[in-house]
């Protein structure tokens, strides 16, 4: 008898080795493809070469990523006697028989949802444990055995609590039933996920993209997918999740990058101005301003063709213009339709005179100089950036189109005190760029994608929601966020309101309340702020017991910086990443303290490694990031760094909930009263 016959772990290791060899063979088969005999021209060859290159990348065997993490042994029905290994991608042998099943396949679903109450025909569910890429353990659940106790999986818990070094990783091995329901929901419906810290909402959104690409690959290949994050540091942190799942074609962006294609953003607004510019009422102001360029005709249109003159009176042109305005078309589309409508009126007169004009005649009339001149006078072109520039520079123009929409105080708040000379010299703010994007959509419809994931959505203004909504007007969206973590003065008050601005009022709102990342002691401490920052929001129920994970150190002001350095040193003595989070204004001083102590540190978004595990994080950039251990400097300064107390307390809530294993607060100033009550 061989060793593998008597040793289950050895058998599983043998299957892992065979699966890796099969994946390597699949990759080599693709690399060996000769496309010379199947491509008609260089264009086809280039397209096919790129597809082959992407396929080769998707078949990469990542050494740090286990090829499979689970096994299902079915009992009856169509899977009678069948055994399936569940992994990140499909792997088959030389005969085409599956060795690893993609986690997104229907047959894999019971790995996440089967239970003793509903075994879903699964006799055994096996989870695998890995160390450094090597299979080192396994754990079995016999779902139909009444004698077996119902216990928490040690391997599952260990995987959830594994130290975080490097970018965010996938959670495909640890997806919970309530998360799986969201991940596998259909493409046609939009979903909004409200989730507190550590509930895995970001990972759920990314895995939902991966699932949709698996289930609707051809459709989404045509229409496109997009992940929108709050900042580029966050995008760098999550950028490896989808490639690890074999998905390489998903674009990532921030809202600022999306709308920043029209103008160069070089300025910033005061909070009061940004709130008004981000208000949904600005959409009506812009609509009025765009349509104000249409003026009633004062002269008839006279078209000369040969010896004949065809006259369309001004009142008839005005009727055409009025009809186009009533249809509420895009400004540019209506402008393109106007010459053909005038030409049609000319053709009617030709037919009444006994002529038989065809489409070529209508096209010629539409291009006639007299018609072009009339269109230019009645419906002139509009440059979106110049329009917004005029609104923000010309008090009379703004007042005319904001009458009954914005108050005089609000109009005054958004007017530039020193108007720029032109579009290029203007110091556009992020909120201005959103206004230009709205105006551009009023002129010409924005291209829509098949699916968009919008993360940290609670921080968007209504106008930013509209900008994102334009990118998925004919597709669907996954909205991810936490109302308690809204840290902008314009943060949304409810998902119903946000989804309305997004253009997806019928989206299903799901709430994740089980926390898998933040220790129970830490989340309970942070949750003291919830009644003040998000009344009525459910507190996260952490499944992680980690006694001693929270420590609060009060020091004198002179000892504060050395105490912060000491706390960082202590955490660096343990395994995992360390984040030092501080109010933005405190970051330069702490950087000098770390340098003076000989502690090297990274900036947010820079990848941690075994040698570089400490990151200095301004509180404004902490959202969405996580570290095994966090040192939080001066909580009162974090609150005081924001324009109002509620926003400051929300910023503090974010900072308090970035720790996966341990949190130490260091403070010289009194803690915010809401934490000590």
From TrEMBL:
Positions that bind ATP? 195-202
Molecular-function GO terms, alphabetical: 3'-5' DNA helicase activity; ATP binding; DNA binding; hydrolase activity
**What GO CC annotations are associated with the protein?**
cytosol
Keywords attached to this Swiss-Prot or TrEMBL record, sorted alphabetically, are: ATP-binding, Helicase, Hydrolase, Nucleotide-binding
Gene Ontology annotations of biological process type = recombinational repair
The UniProt record lists the UvrD-like helicase ATP-binding domain at 174-528
Q: What is this protein called?
A: AAA family ATPase
Q: Which organism is it from?
A: Streptomyces kanasensis
